[in-house]
């Protein structure tokens, strides 16, 4: 298993040189997020992830979770690591101080989350889901609900879940069958079966607080009739067991140490949170955060995979360089001398560092949306977040999967063997394009709801930033040709969008036909912008080798990865007809 | 698990309408391969694969192989299935009648292999490796060696292996350490340790015949000092156990029911096969076949995945079509109405059917190379085979992996759950781009050895075919715009090759830098040619729906997949500098 080392140099580069986190925090009045505090989070967070979580990653995969008559046991060491994490105060880093949190900006929470996810994706699911539940309760709960639940959740005594999916519906939540019947005491009796509930049952906390989508008896049909309920495993007052039980855990391709549960609610006592029939809206308010977190899993598994691959490529001796032996004293050259191995490593590096920049860029927007005192600024940040979130989720997870596959390939046959840990990363990475809204759904959200739904306004909010950047750097000595290339793509982006918009007015299927390629096309342009920002910022970096590497990786990105936009554009332009002309029957075989 | 149904309609379409197998067999004098015989292989082979192998696929994955003190047990039912397979005469379909085979053309063997690999990839490894060993012995063994080994191998009483890789070398076989010391009786004492030996030890046959690469004491260094030895598990004469033992089996990402063994040779008695120090050449003579077989695994897993996905897409109800309800009587529309689901399904269909056409096209060349009485024709077929083999291996396995990933994605969360079987196909498919020479190595073989090594001659052998085809169909009523597009790409292919060739004369790293993208670029053009052939041939097909589907899928291929050539071309043209400028140290993190 690759031993995780937090990429602190790159993180500090983004924090200090590219995105000026200190100025950003100062402007938002987030005085607690001082340079010393940021440094402490980086240093101590890295130690915890490297020393506690990383060593449990492979054993967690091998052991998996165990289910026995409703009881779920997490792999050896998971429970203890969670206790240490809580003890270290990590769980409440970005939580509300009113309920025991440290109140640091969301962006710092995400910096920490990357390290957690890179060292142990499965383990990270437990606190991750709890943070999701905390956000929902914080945003929509009554004062009493917050008092009852948020303190214990922040303290890590209790953990949380989000219960959406049922066997017959995932994307189409309007179809859910779970019912909530009002009781005389103001509570609800929740009955139904939920599947794919991460952290739905486990042994890491004293109680589990489920946030459950269900329908009231008189609810309108479809998504407008869904409400959200808090259903604790143990009643908060009496401590007695509620009528919710884990019926099974799933056997999955990866994230095997994350318990994915079937939860049966049998008239369980629940409490309405937020307005009746507005449950989906409540869920959506925390989606930005959750989707960014899921997007980051692409980065996390990609980073871990790169760390394994780069080490192996330097150690493994195989064949001689075609331009003459590079390690003549050894039996063969290390494989990093071979251009095709470098192609894979640079692809990994360019995506990881680009995706990290995208994460940090977006994380700052989260801060601004939460903390700015300027309503206009908050709205601008919200708009950019709405635009970027589906791209973060889908682009980062698709490219993350590609990265982990390159990582395996660098190892050759050893990449396929479990003991090396590289294949686990590819298996763990494979869920991220699926859950939290499939990447296809993200793409529809981006193109249909966000871009076309705003008549292009949300797109223009971003292209304007790129346009300004290109104008400001049009004469950059080393990079002007790349700036020009970005500027041209930025214009083309708008044109392509108008084209699809026109076509969609005549035929709504044009949106679905274009969506995934449109999202990937957008992601490549956004990363190009971020890569240029990094290449420029790196010129002021004290470490000349580091600066050179950033420049070289930027160049690689523009020459070898950005051309993929041409293919995605062509696919978008191909339109829906070639997708829709076949009858469903004609797809079949016999 | 998707229940496998052999795609007989598509197979017959290729055999009858596209490639005229009957005329092909008649021209080669392969009279045994009569239409009735072909039909029997298709019908009966399908039954065996559907009824015997397919039901063992998922249980084989769950059980895996068991290792206990040198003894390997295959999953429940594997041994019995092998006995049935041998009993049915399937093992010797394409084997030499002089040793008990049926002597049918290789192409028929491959038609059968596809069905085997699609229904159970892991199981298919055991006969597959045996066929490899049989080819090597047939091509290079002495008459005595053939007499001793080929009969039993053809009969399936014994099975075979190919022992190349050692812990420190896979690609770079010049580094092998296994030694063979001549003995007074003319045999050799073979000592060393081999890893990743598929079917190296198991319970399916009475004896296992290992073909082992080793070095003689006086061997020249590197690949020119490697010899090939036959090392039986039990001595053919005495039946006593030889000094070869299985030290362990690997725990892998997939193909878990295929025993991947560490084999320890401890002065084992072996017999030189072929000339001393020419062992690698002996291996290479069977590589074409083995690599085509591995390439087919991309098709096999892709086909199985498509069968699962198409069924699910018709069954699963989720959301309404944006152009109005298509199944208003149901709770939601089947997901096949959604354009993005169709994008995934059509991508799968276009690659699978294209890859099947590529397999059949190449299989005919194998026949011609083996059976033609015309030396010129044989040479032409050999040249085309040399050119196409690395493309079959790498392009088909890379696209096969993509296909199985789409298959998972169509299933949403259920795609990640083991019981549905879709994730197994993606895990099983993941080995194919790695073994039998990584796809990076295939690409070097194609561009460096085959294309540039022949001064473009091997490429021109193929582009000439495409050129003629385009000339003949330039005025095709429905397809002429695609024909023109293919014709243009075909010219560009030559130009791009010259460009790389020029660059490579100055800098050999240009080959490695371009190779993988060049191979994929080539693969997409070849599939475009084959898709047009299919679309044209389909017009004469009796089933109008089938013909329409071929035309629509061809159109989809040209509009949505072929544009990927633009990206690959740009990557080729980017050259090596952006890969080579970074120092190995600068890749590292801290």
From TrEMBL, chains A, B:
Residues 462-582 form the Acetyl-CoA dehydrogenase-like C-terminal domain. It comes from the Bacteria. It holds the Pfam family Acyl-CoA_dh_N. Its cofactor is FAD. It is an enzyme of class 1 (oxidoreductase). Residues 162-266 form the Acyl-CoA oxidase/dehydrogenase middle domain. GO terms for molecular function: flavin adenine dinucleotide binding; oxidoreductase activity, acting on the CH-CH group of donors. Its EC number is 1.3.99.41. The keyword Transport does not apply. Residues 40-157 form the Acyl-CoA dehydrogenase/oxidase N-terminal domain. Keywords: FAD, Flavoprotein, Oxidoreductase. The keyword Flavoprotein applies. SUPFAM superfamilies: Acyl-CoA dehydrogenase C-terminal domain-like, Acyl-CoA dehydrogenase NM domain-like. Residues 277-445 form the Acyl-CoA dehydrogenase/oxidase C-terminal domain. InterPro entries: Acyl-CoA_dh-like_C_dom, Acyl-CoA_Oxase/DH_mid-dom, Acyl-CoA_Oxase/DH_mid-dom_sf, AcylCo_DH-like_C, AcylCo_DH/oxidase_C, AcylCoA_DH/ox_N, AcylCoA_DH/ox_N_sf, AcylCoA_DH/oxidase_NM_dom_sf. It catalyses: 3-(methylsulfanyl)propanoyl-CoA + oxidized [electron-transfer flavoprotein] + H(+) = 3-(methylsulfanyl)acryloyl-CoA + reduced [electron-transfer flavoprotein]. Involved in the assimilation of dimethylsulphoniopropionate (DMSP), an important compound in the fixation of carbon in marine phytoplankton, by mediating the conversion of 3-(methylthio)propanoyl-CoA (MMPA-CoA) to 3-(methylthio)acryloyl-CoA (MTA-CoA). PANTHER family: ACYL-COA DEHYDROGENASE, BROAD-SPECIFICITY LINEAR ACYL-COA DEHYDROGENASE FADE5. Belongs to the acyl-CoA dehydrogenase family. This is 3-methylmercaptopropionyl-CoA dehydrogenase. It comes from Pseudomonas fluorescens. The lineage of its organism: Bacteria, Pseudomonadati, Pseudomonadota, Gammaproteobacteria, Pseudomonadales.
């Amino acid at each position: 298993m690759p031993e995780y080392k937090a990429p602190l140099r790159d993180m500090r580069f983004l924090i200090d040189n590219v995105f000026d986190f200190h100025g950003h925090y100062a402007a938002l009045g987030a005085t607690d997020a001082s340079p010393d505090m940021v440094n402490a989070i980086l240093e101590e967070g890295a130690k915890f992830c490297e020393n506690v979580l990383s060593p449990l990653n492979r054993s967690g995969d091998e052991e998996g979770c165990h289910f026995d008559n409703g009881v779920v046991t997490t792999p050896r060491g998971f429970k203890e690591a969670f206790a240490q994490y809580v003890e270290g105060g990590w769980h409440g880093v970005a939580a509300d101080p009113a309920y025991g949190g440290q109140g640091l900006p969301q962006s710092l929470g995400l910096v920490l989350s990357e390290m957690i996810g890179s060292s142990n994706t499965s383990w990270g699911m437990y606190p991750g889901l709890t943070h999701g539940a905390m956000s929902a309760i914080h945003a929509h709960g009554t004062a009493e609900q917050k008092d009852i639940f948020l303190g214990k959740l922040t303290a890590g005594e209790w953990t949380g879940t989000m219960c959406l999916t049922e066997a017959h519906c995932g994307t189409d939540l309007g179809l859910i069958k779970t019912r909530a019947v009002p009781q005389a005491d103001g509570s609800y009796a929740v009955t139904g079966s939920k599947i794919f509930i991460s952290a739905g049952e486990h042994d890491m906390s004293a109680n589990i607080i489920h946030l459950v989508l269900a329908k009231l008896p008189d609810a309108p049909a479809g998504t407008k009739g869904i409400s959200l309920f808090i259903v604790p495993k143990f009643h908060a007052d009496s401590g007695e067991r509620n009528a919710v039980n884990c019926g099974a855990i799933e056997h999955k391709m990866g994230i095997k140490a994350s318990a994915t549960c079937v939860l049966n609610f049998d008239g369980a006592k629940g409490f309405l949170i937020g307005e009746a029939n507005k449950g989906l809206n409540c869920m959506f308010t925390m989606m930005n955060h959750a989707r960014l977190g899921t997007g980051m899993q692409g980065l996390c598994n990609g980073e871990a995979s790169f760390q394994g691959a780069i080490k192996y490529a330097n150690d493994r001796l195989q064949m001689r360089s075609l331009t003459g032996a590079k390690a003549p004293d050894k039996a063969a050259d290390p494989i990093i001398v071979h251009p095709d191995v470098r192609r894979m490593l640079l692809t990994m590096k360019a995506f990881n560092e680009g995706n990290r920049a995208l994460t940090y860029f977006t994380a700052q927007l989260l801060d601004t949306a939460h903390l700015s005192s300027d309503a206009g600024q908050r709205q601008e940040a919200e708009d950019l977040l709405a635009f970027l979130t589906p791209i973060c989720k889908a682009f980062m997870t698709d490219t993350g999967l590609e990265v982990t596959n390159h990582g395996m390939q660098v190892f050759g046959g050893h990449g396929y063997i479990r003991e090396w840990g590289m294949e686990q990363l590819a298996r763990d990475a494979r869920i991220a394009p699926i859950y939290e809204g499939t990447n296809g759904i993200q793409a529809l959200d981006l193109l249909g709801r966000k871009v076309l739904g705003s008549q292009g306004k949300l797109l223009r909010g971003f292209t304007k930033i790129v346009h300004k950047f290109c104008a400001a750097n049009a004469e950059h000595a080393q990079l002007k040709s790349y700036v020009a290339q970005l500027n041209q793509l930025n214009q083309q982006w708008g044109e392509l969008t108008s084209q699809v918009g026109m076509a969609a007015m005549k035929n709504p299927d044009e949106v679905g036909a274009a969506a995934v390629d449109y999202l990937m096309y957008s992601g490549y342009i956004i990363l190009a912008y971020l890569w240029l920002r990094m290449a420029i910022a790196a010129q002021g970096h004290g470490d000349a080798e580091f600066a050179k590497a950033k420049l070289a990786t930027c160049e690689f990105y523009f020459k070898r990865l950005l051309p993929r936009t041409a293919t995605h554009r062509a696919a978008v332009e191909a339109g829906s007809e070639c997708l829709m002309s076949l009858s469903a029957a004609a797809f079949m075989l016999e």
